[in-house]
Every structure is written in structure tokens, then in C-alpha cells.
């Protein structure tokens, strides 16, 4: 099978009939060579640019694109309990590829630590999201279209992408998403490639990509279900794990005896289907200690692929995953996330000279 060009990843991936050999397992700890290689990947990548991005978002490096062009994941294991249906890929991506994706995305994406208020009766509570988040995409009522594209469809190629009505293809003003805390953002190439592969393997269509970065054992997400009306009945959600292993806990909403614990490791993916969201809750709890001395720095990236079918989905996802606070970027020198407004952070993150879009 011939290799695909970088440009070809802006369209759907074709079906593959031959499984290539998996890459060799990742070493336990990152070496100087590992770090140098990841820095070279960032410098060689061509960025995705759009006015809605806080800065250019680098595209996947050639060596990852070359591998992903012909890669086909193994078949999933089905997990079934009352009202629960999960396809488990162990792994979806081989560990070495998942490692490269983790390091690249952590260094390349803008993240947010969202704070918001909720009101129950007369009591208003401020919630500080216990993890870093970011989101891209738009609900099914709209699409991002490049006016200069000849295919007449959804396009992720170039900074000229504008929001249009998905049926009429007419350009949208600000009215439809006036309640959104920020301008909706098209999915950048580095995440679009992964979405295309997940869609091909699951047979689903997704229009949102949510990314969580759990920086340490203290970062978490409490029990919840993604059963909002704007996702439609019985939504399918694919969840890809990169980095440190964290426990994924599930429990039935009514039958307290029905529980499930899945330690999700680097490269694994679970696809929640059927009545799972309606009948079950899931969480990533805090751990007793952070893994140290590893290439993950104790962190974990979780990428979820979803389909929003109502306009309300867009406002909700950007409010709780971007918000109105500062942008955070990974500072490789300090080994932690820092606020993007700091000039030293900008210099560390954009050493390739691509500049910023404040």
C-alpha cells in the first residue's frame, strides 16, 4: 500500500485491508534522544491556522502521518453488563505511537483551567475544573467551510475556514452562536487525523473533539454521564487514553451492585455505546500518588470524540472546556503548564518561529 501525502489527511481515511506491523513498545523513561526527537517534530510541523485559535496549532509530524496512513487497529473486546455496552481496544494505538502522540499534543495544544459558577436555589458555587481542558468542533447544524475549496464540503485546510449552515451552505453571522463564550473552533489537523481513524474503525460520525489533560494524580473528573439532550438518544462516545495509566470507574445509576473498573493505559480506547450514558455513570478518580521519573511526568491525556446534534451543544462545550480564562501551554523547560501570556512560555512553546495570534 502506498503512503498517503500529508494533504490527504484532510479527507476521510480509506478502508484498509492489510494490517501493518505494530511499532516496538515505548521505553519506560524518556531519554535525551526522546526529548530531542519530540522538539524536532514540533519544529518540522506545519501549523493549522485559524482566527479562532489563540496561536497556530502544529500538525502531526511526518513520521506519525506515515505510520497512521496504513495503520489499522486490532479488533475490540466487547464488554457487556446490564444497560452497558463498551468496545475496548487494548491497545488502539501501539504504545510507542501513543507516546509520541501524548508528547506532541501536550506540547502543541492550548489548554484551559476553567472556572465557572453554578446556582442551586439561592446558593451560588464557584467550580474550579480539576484538570486542563480544550475543545474543537461544531454541532451538526453548521460546518466549517473553506470558500476556496473545490470539493464543496467540510474542509480543514487553511485559515479561511468560515462557519456556514450545514444545509444551505450560507455563511453564518454571529447570531446563531451569540451565547458561546468564545468563537467556535474548527478541528485542527493533529486531531482531525485521529478523528478520521476513530470514525473509520467505529463506523460513527463525530463533530467534536474534547481533550482533557490530567497533570497529576490530583487531577480528576467526578462521576457523571454524557446524557445531555444535545447529544441525542443513546450517543456513542469514543475515549482515547494517552500517557499515565488511570482507573476508569463506572457504576449503574440504579443498581448499585453493578460496577466496573478499567485501568486505561497508554494507547487504549473505550467506545461507550447504546444505553451506557443513559444508565451508567463514569469517572476518573484521584490517585494516591503521582507517577514520577516517567516520560509522562505523571500526566494523562484523554481525547473524546462526540457528535453534537443540537446548537446548545456548542455553547455548552465551549463554556465548560474553554471558558473565559487564560490560555495554558506546556513549558518543556519547567515540565509543567504555564499561562500563555508569559513571554517566556510563548518563546518555549513557539521556538519554531511560527508566531502567535493573540
As laid out across the biggest beta sheet, the strand order is 3-4-15-12-17-10-7
DSSP strand content: 25-35%
The 3D shape can be described as globular
Count helical runs.
7
Distance between the termini: 42 Å
Sequence stretches where pLDDT stays below 50 over 5 or more residues: 1-30, 349-358
Q: State the share of residues found in helices, binned by percent.
A: 10-25%
SS elements, strand count: 19
Here the CATH topology equals Jelly Rolls
Global structural class: alpha+beta
CATH architecture annotation name: Sandwich
Relevant CATH superfamily: Alpha-ketoglutarate-dependent dioxygenase AlkB-like
Number of domains: 1
Round the Cα radius of gyration to an integer and report it: 20 Å
What can be said about the biggest beta sheet? 7 strands, antiparallel
N-to-C order of helices and strands: HEEHEEHEEEEEHEEEEEEHEEHEEH
Q: Tell me, rounded to a whole number, the average pLDDT.
A: 85
User: Class, according to the CATH hierarchy?
Assistant: Mainly Beta
Amino acid at each position: 500500500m502506498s503512503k498517503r501525502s500529508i494533504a490527504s489527511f484532510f479527507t476521510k481515511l480509506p478502508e484498509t485491508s492489510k494490517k501493518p506491523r505494530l511499532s516496538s513498545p515505548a521505553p519506560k523513561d524518556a531519554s535525551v534522544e526522546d526529548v530531542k526527537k519530540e522538539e524536532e517534530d514540533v519544529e518540522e510541523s506545519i501549523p493549522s491556522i485559524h482566527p479562532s485559535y489563540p496561536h497556530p496549532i502544529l500538525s502531526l509530524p511526518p513520521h506519525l502521518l506515515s505510520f497512521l496512513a496504513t495503520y489499522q487497529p486490532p479488533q475490540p473486546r466487547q464488554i457487556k453488563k446490564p444497560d452497558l455496552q463498551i468496545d475496548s481496544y487494548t491497545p488502539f494505538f501501539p504504545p510507542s505511537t501513543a507516546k509520541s502522540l501524548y508528547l506532541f499534543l501536550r506540547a502543541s495544544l492550548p489548554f484551559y483551567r476553567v472556572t465557572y459558577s453554578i446556582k442551586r436555589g439561592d446558593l451560588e458555587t464557584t467550580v474550579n475544573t480539576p484538570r486542563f481542558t480544550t475543545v474543537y468542533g461544531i454541532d451538526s447544524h453548521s460546518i466549517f467551510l473553506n470558500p476556496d475549496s473545490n470539493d464543496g464540503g467540510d474542509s480543514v485546510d487553511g485559515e479561511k475556514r468560515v462557519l456556514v449552515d450545514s444545509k444551505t451552505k450560507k455563511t453564518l453571522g454571529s447570531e446563531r452562536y451569540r451565547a458561546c463564550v468564545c468563537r467556535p473552533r474548527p478541528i485542527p489537523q493533529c486531531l482531525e487525523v485521529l478523528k478520521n481513524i476513530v470514525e473509520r474503525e467505529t463506523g460513527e460520525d463525530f463533530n467534536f473533539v474534547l481533550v482533557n489533560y490530567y497533570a497529576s494524580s490530583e487531577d480528576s473528573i467526578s462521576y457523571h454521564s454524557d446524557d445531555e439532550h444535545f447529544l441525542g438518544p443513546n450517543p456513542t462516545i469514543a475515549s482515547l487514553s494517552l500517557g499515565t495509566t488511570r482507573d476508569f470507574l463506572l457504576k449503574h445509576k440504579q443498581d448499585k451492585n453493578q460496577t466496573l473498573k478499567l485501568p486505561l493505559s497508554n494507547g487504549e480506547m473505550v467506545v461507550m455505546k447504546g444505553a451506557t450514558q443513559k444508565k451508567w455513570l463514569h469517572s476518573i478518580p484521584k490517585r494516591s500518588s503521582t507517577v514520577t521519573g516517567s516520560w509522562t511526568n505523571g500526566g494523562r491525556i484523554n481525547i473524546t470524540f462526540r457528535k453534537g446534534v443540537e446548537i446548545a451543544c456548542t455553547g455548552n462545550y465551549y463554556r465548560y472546556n474553554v471558558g473565559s480564562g487564560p490560555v495554558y501551554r506546556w513549558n518543556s523547560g519547567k515540565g509543567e503548564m504555564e499561562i500563555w501570556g508569559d513571554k517566556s512560555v510563548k518563546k518555549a512553546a513557539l521556538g519554531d518561529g511560527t508566531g502567535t495570534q493573540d
